[in-house]
Amino acid sequence: MAAPNDVQIVTIPKDSADQNQCNLSVVPEVEEFDYSKRAQWLRAAVLGANDGLVSIASLMMGVGAVKDDVKVMILTGFAGLFAGACSMAIGEFVSVYSQLDIEVAQMKREKRMVENDEEDVEKEKLPNPFQAALASALAFSLGAIVPLLAAAFIADYKVRLAVVVVATTAALVGFGGVGAVLGEDEGGEVLW
């Protein structure tokens, strides 16, 4: 006997001599992936990476346009990386935690949390503020590293500024492509 969630496929032979024989095969039910969970951290990661990339590149180019000292430019970039990563993590945490509060209050109003089984399923679907904050801070740092590495090994300040612009542009295209690929479901539809 098959389990309640399994599908039975019965093959009926065409030949009248074989009509008493039937082949039973069990095909397990395919679990669907919940893309909404991935959309939460993906949004935080893409926005964090783009913000880190553009913010630090702009900060470094502004300092580099005024002062041609590579040490000052790199130090400014690292200070911006640290401050920006902290800011993004805190902002994302507060934002997602507010969303979590709203969803929990809505669930209580609708009395969905009455049965323990349903409570566990519903809690799994809730956003995780710690995960979103970590994704945002790490992504900001990843984005910020690109202009820092691009500028670190170039002595001439005019060439250094041009390299930062080119590296930032290429990284924006790359981050956009990665976000687009990760943001699609199996059917090719964009999640966010």
From TrEMBL:
Any one GO molecular function term: iron ion sequestering activity
Keyword Transferase appears in the UniProt entry: no
Record keyword Signal present: no
Bilayer-crossing regions: 41-60, 72-90, 132-154, 161-182
Key words of the record: Coiled coil, Ion transport, Iron, Iron transport, Membrane, Transmembrane, Transmembrane helix, Transport, Vacuole
InterPro entries assigned: Ccc1_fam
Top-level lineage group: Eukaryota
Coiled coil regions, renumbered to chain: 97-124
Bilayer topology term: Multi-pass membrane protein
One of the protein's GO biological processes: intracellular manganese ion homeostasis
GO cellular component term of the entry, any: vacuolar membrane
Protein family membership: Belongs to the CCC1 family.
Function description: Vacuolar Fe(2+) uptake transporter.
Protein name (record): Vacuolar iron transporter
Lineage start: Eukaryota, Viridiplantae, Streptophyta, Embryophyta, Tracheophyta
